[in-house]
Design goal:
Helices cover 31% and strands 31% of the residues. It is an alpha+beta fold. It is rod-shaped and about 125 Å long. It has one domain. The mean pLDDT is 87.
Length: 193
């Protein structure tokens, strides 16, 4: 007896055109969603990095200025009228513990805070200082000086708004970092005790 096994023809099929198109559509949708999420993540990282960098540098500069005010004497500018107790100014000057006259100036045109000793060449402390605006949109002076009895400084307040300094100019490139506002107040130690 002879038994023969007859092999049937094995049919092999691939994907048909509709299945391939559906697979491509799903792949394209997933790829688009992934790229959109990656772009949003990159932009958020970039903006956060710029803001944190600006805030860190700004805090160091603010701390330095407040320390100089706390330890300084003979502050200026004085009010023109001794009855005026509060003035706002684009600069503050004082004498340090070493007897040197220090001037800290906000340059509106260059958007910088400058530090000079005894009238020598000013050194840039912080750049990108755009100033703080009030409700009417007027740019305020950063130094508010409160005096008692005419020429005795009671308190100095510094109010700076700093624009993060990145090299990106277009929003499409990721220029979304927000300005950082830094406010500090100090009282000269001779007045505090």
């Amino acid at each position: 007896m002879r038994t023969t096994l007859r092999r049937g023809r094995i049919r092999r099929r691939g994907f048909n055109l509709v299945e391939v198109l559906i697979a491509l559509a799903i792949t394209a949708t997933l790829l688009t969603a992934t790229l959109a999420a990656l772009d949003a993540s990159f932009r958020a990282y970039q903006a956060t990095t710029e803001e944190v960098s600006t805030q860190s540098i700004g805090r160091i500069v603010m701390h330095r200025m407040l320390t100089l005010i706390r330890t300084g004497t003979d502050f200026g500018p004085y009010p023109a009228d001794p009855r005026v107790t509060t003035i706002q100014s684009d600069f503050i000057e004082f004498r340090t513990q070493n007897g040197e006259i220090v001037t800290i100036t906000w340059n509106r045109n260059d958007e910088t805070v400058l530090y000079s000793v005894e009238g020598n060449t000013p050194v840039e402390m912080l750049d990108g200082v755009i100033g703080t605006t009030d409700d009417a949109g007027v740019v305020q002076s950063p130094f508010t000086l409160n005096y008692e009895q005419g020429r005795r400084l009671y308190r100095a307040t510094i109010d700076l708004t700093v624009e993060p300094d990145d090299m990106i100019d277009l929003e499409i490139e990721g220029d979304r970092a927000r300005p950082v506002r830094l406010v500090g107040s100090a009282m000269p130690r001779l007045e505090a005790f």
